[in-house]
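Quick one: structure for this chain?
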Amino acid sequence: MYEYDEECLRTFLKRQSQLFDEPVADTLEEAEAFLEDCMAVIVDSVREVREYFEESGADVEGMSDEELEDASEVFELPNGQYLIVEG
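Got it. Here's what it folds into:
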């Protein structure tokens, strides 16, 4: 289980519309509960984003690092890590 720090939760709240048509959370507590429920993961690099998608069966072979970073499920965090949320 991941611990989502305040910066991670704020980033998700601010940018959740990149993945969802309607807000799924309005507060930090709701964001944390949602991320826990959908088992969102935090990885340290775009290489690990690629590995995550490959392990989950996604075809990312032809995708550039920039395309991976722009995927709607990927939220770049201020500390350089990435939050991956599968809706």
